[in-house]
Specification:
Elements lengths: L2 H13 L10 H10 L21 H18 L3 H10 L4 H13 L3 H13 L3 H13 L3 H13 L24 H12 L8 H8 L3 E2 L8 E2 L15
Antiparallel strand pairs: 1-2
Helix pairs in contact: 1-2, 2-9, 3-5, 3-7, 3-9, 4-5, 5-6, 6-7, 7-8
Length: about 230
């Protein structure tokens, strides 16, 4: 798929996702999507020509969810929000970002749990991600319910001036630009975005705790996630 088509996919998603406007650096994502290096291709046996339009609504929703998640972790506020979730708990945007990280490891049910926590705390984007997740599973009634929920949640207030945390650590750098470019490039190639193996292993080793019965045990953040936020990574 060409870079032009990749940028068109971003525009198509944003056209129907007003919750992402103003909350994420979409102009920068569009620019980087066109120049992000393409990851190594999958084995030839796994390659299929990418159609101009996805053949079904649930496949289109799965792709749109991948792209929304890439925008969430690409945002400047992703790392500070995840830090607040780690240090203080109860941060809706941190729960959104944590759910996005779980989605990148294909832990869909666990991601849904954290997105529900974020939506209950007032995250429009989390409700929108839940709508896409249910639509990707062909659960259209639930998808519409969460889409309506995202429309009813008030948009976030304009961010105030940045403050340096009292700990003196400054603003955490978050995922590296190389990793964020990789995620956008994978979306451009219509591949499920994934973290590098070393980062994915950090997420996969997180402790689990019981949640709602339908979710089963779900991963919870702990201090090991600080490795994801360090300049050098694991």
């Amino acid at each position: 798929m060409s870079g032009l088509r990749g940028r068109a996919q971003v525009d198509e998603l944003l056209a129907g996702a007003e919750v992402l406007h103003g909350a994420y650096p979409v102009a920068e994502a569009r620019r980087r999507l066109g120049r992000a290096p393409v990851p190594p291709p999958p084995p030839a046996s796994a390659v299929r020509p990418a159609p101009d339009v996805f053949p079904s609504a649930h496949e289109q929703a799965a792709h749109d969810l991948d792209l929304a998640v890439a925008l969430v972790v690409d945002a400047p506020g992703a790392a500070p929000s995840l830090r607040r979730l780690l240090d203080e708990g109860g941060d809706p945007h941190g729960a959104l970002v944590f759910g996005a990280l779980l989605h990148l490891t294909r832990a869909g049910d666990a991601a849904a749990y954290w997105w529900r926590q974020a939506a209950e705390g007032g995250s429009r984007t989390a409700a929108f991600c839940l709508a896409l997740l249910h639509r990707s599973r062909a659960e259209f009634r639930d998808a519409e319910r969460w889409r309506e929920r995202s429309r009813r949640i008030a948009p976030p207030a304009a961010p105030g001036p940045r403050r340096t945390p009292a700990t003196g650590r400054g603003t955490p750098p978050g995922l590296s630009e190389e990793v964020r470019n990789r995620l956008l490039a994978q979306c451009r190639e219509r591949r499920h975005p994934s973290l590098p193996a070393a980062l994915e292993s950090v997420v996969n080793r997180l402790p689990t705790a019981p949640a709602e019965e339908e979710d089963g045990p779900v991963p919870h953040p702990d201090a090991s996630l600080h490795r994801l936020l360090s300049p050098s990574g694991p």
